[in-house]
């Protein structure tokens, strides 16, 4: 029963898109299980360079069925735009299905997200402004609109009538914003429903049949587990569970069916938006090296274009991610970014006052006070981007990878040394 969940094991942007694209031709189904178009997954392959926000990264394999699962929140206009762009680049999108149960991001969600961020002032979260918090809040509050609703005129009108009255009250009374017109929203979303009608379906039978037949399935994560709403650096988190439990819930597959949980880690750490980052490097030549400004893979947000914050590999957080998600296989990406550094630091523990701690504290204020304890390792100062076998890596690079895997506490699966599909070193097979 080969069902592999590929999850981000840091603060997002670990290179999940790259890895899912690489593995997609071995899978029958690729299911994006959570988040929305706050995600930005870059895929570089023989078809071109693609920035995917909602479409699963298996879309480039002509034989793979791609599913946007029930745990995803879908902005229909963003999805339609993305599909049109893919089609214009010659990519077949006919085997992409969207779960009827997926919740829909409405324009009032995006507006609310941005108004809330403004109101938070200095304590803003630094969201992507895509309406993620408000849409998940409405889902839990049972006042969401789901993909299936867009396909039924009366249901959509009925749901919108109830929901919009309350939303408009909130937006006008609390934020002094203009109310949304029921008629305009209804017409627009009905039209989106028509445009997406070939894609929106009950995906449960497709997934269930694939499981019955033991077809290989890939579950594609978005965000990273340090942004998890329960276990991340709350409140500087997203509003969904990006880890293994979220993979099961969002795809509609029970936990015992997962054969592998693959944690994707960058060889260092990055973060977009606000929130604690114990190993952050703010300035200096090492920070500049990690940022890679000017390169296609520079640390610039795929979705918002914001500069990503950068820092050394944090093994305290990395191990925490393994423990929370039962990660059994490690993928290390962007090893090549470290190529020019004379020495590389790895944070193995934190110091809080005079005590050494091995777990991240649960509150932001305390996490902001920890001091990383570093181990220093020699760099290799030679290019690795052409290497395809582990033992062809410079010895220092082998030692660096081995040390971080030992600290993380799971087996090594893949090392990636460049953004292109074949720039990988396969150490252990995922399927
Ligand atoms: P995702 O959100 O986890 O899919 O990651 P993003 O696509 O947001 O960010 C990863 C960035 O690193 C993208 O620009 C990728 O093309 C690039 N990338 C992925 N793997 C590697 C690698 O091994 N080396 C380099 N240099 N770039 C990589
Ligand atoms: P991928 O899938 C990196 C971050 C935002 C912000 C916080 C909350 O590309 O790895 P939200 O809009 O979700 O309410 O923002 O979460 N964030 C991401 N950071 N990669 C992502 O996705 C992210 N999705 C959300 O920057 O700090
Ligand atoms: Mg990304």
Tell me, rounded to a whole number, the average pLDDT: 97
CATH class of the largest domain: Alpha Beta
- The Rg value, from CA coordinates, equals 21 Å
| Main sheet: strand order | 9-7-5-2-10-1-11-16-20-21
Give the overall shape: globular
- The chain-level structural class is alpha/beta
Task: Report the helical percentage.
Answer: 25-40%
What is the CATH architecture term of the largest domain? Answer: Alpha-Beta Complex
Span of the ends, CA to CA: 10 Å
Query: Mind summarizing the main beta sheet?
Result: 10 strands, mixed
Indicate how many domains the architecture comprises: 3
Total helical segments: 12
Task: Quote the beta fraction.
Answer: 15-25%
Poorly predicted runs:
none
Give the cofactors and ligands: guanosine-5'-diphosphate, 6-O-phosphoryl inosine monophosphate, magnesium ion
- The CATH superfamily title of the largest domain: Adenylosuccinate Synthetase, subunit A, domain 3
Q: How many strand elements? A: 21
CATH topology of the largest domain: Adenylosuccinate Synthetase, Chain A, domain 3
Q: Which secondary structure elements does this structure contain, and how are they paired or packed?
A:
Blueprint: E1 3-8, H1 16-23, E2 29-32, E3 41-45, E4 48-52, E5 65-68, E6 73-74, H2 76-88, E7 96-99, E8 103-104, H3 107-120, H4 132-140, H5 153-175, H6 182-196, E9 200-201, H7 204-212, E10 217-220, H8 244-251, E11 260-266, E12 269-271, E13 280-281, H9 285-291, E14 309-311, E15 313-314, H10 315-325, E16 329-333, E17 343-352, E18 355-357, H11 364-367, E19 371-378, H12 395-408, E20 411-416, E21 424-426
Parallel strand pairs: 1-10, 1-11, 2-5, 2-10, 5-7, 6-8, 7-9, 11-16, 15-17, 16-20
Antiparallel strand pairs: 3-4, 12-14, 13-14, 17-18, 17-19, 20-21
Helix pairs in contact: 3-4, 5-6
The structure holds guanosine-5'-diphosphate, 6-O-phosphoryl inosine monophosphate and magnesium ion (MG).
């Amino acid at each position: 029963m080969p069902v592999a969940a590929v999850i981000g094991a840091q603060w997002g942007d670990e290179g999940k898109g790259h890895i899912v694209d690489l593995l997609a031709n071995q899978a029958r189904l690729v299911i994006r299980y959570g988040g929305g178009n706050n995600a930005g997954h870059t895929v570089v392959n023989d078809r071109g360079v693609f920035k995917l926000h909602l479409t699963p990264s298996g879309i480039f394999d002509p034989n793979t069925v791609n599913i946007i699962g029930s745990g995803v929140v879908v902005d229909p206009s963003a999805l339609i735009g993305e599909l049109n762009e893919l089609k214009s680049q010659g990519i077949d999108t006919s085997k992409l299905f969207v779960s009827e149960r997926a919740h829909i991001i409405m324009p009032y969600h995006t507006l609310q997200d941005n108004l809330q961020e403004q109101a938070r002032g200095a304590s803003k979260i630094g969201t992507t402004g895509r309406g993620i918090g408000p849409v998940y809040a409405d889902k839990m509050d049972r006042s969401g609109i789901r993909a299936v609703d867009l396909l039924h005129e009366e249901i959509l009108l009925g749901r919108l009538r109830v929901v919009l009255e309350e939303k408009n009250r909130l937006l006008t009374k609390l934020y002094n914003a203009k109310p949304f017109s029921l008629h305009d929203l209804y017409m627009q979303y009905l039209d989106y429903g028509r445009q997406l009608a070939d894609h929106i379906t009950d995906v449960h039978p497709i997934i269930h049949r694939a499981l019955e037949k033991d077809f290989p399935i890939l579950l594609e994560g978005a965000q990273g587990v340090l942004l998890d709403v329960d276990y991340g650096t709350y409140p500087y988190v997203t509003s969904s569970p990006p880890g293994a439990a979220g993979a099961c819930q969002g795809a509609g597959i029970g936990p015992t069916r997962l054969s592998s949980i693959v944690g994707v880690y960058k060889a260092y750490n990055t973060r977009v938006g606000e929130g604690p980052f114990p190993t952050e490097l703010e300035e200096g030549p090492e920070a500049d090296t990690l940022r890679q400004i000017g390169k296609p893979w520079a640390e610039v947000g795929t979705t918002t274009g914001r500069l990503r914050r950068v820092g050394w590999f944090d093994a305290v957080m990395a191990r925490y991610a393994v423990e929370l998600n039962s990660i059994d296989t490690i993928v290390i990406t962007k090893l090549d970014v470290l190529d020019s550094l004379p020495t590389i630091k790895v944070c193995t523990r934190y110091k809080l006052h005079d005590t050494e701690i091995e777990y991240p504290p649960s509150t932001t204020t305390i996490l902001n006070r920890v001091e990383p304890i570093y181990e220093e390792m020699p760099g290799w100062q030679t290019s690795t981007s052409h290497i395809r076998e582990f033992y062809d890596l410079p010895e220092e690079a082998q030692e660096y990878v081995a040390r971080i895997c030992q600290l993380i506490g799971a087996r090594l699966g893949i090392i990636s040394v460049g953004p292109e599909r074949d720039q990988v070193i396969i150490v252990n097979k995922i399927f």
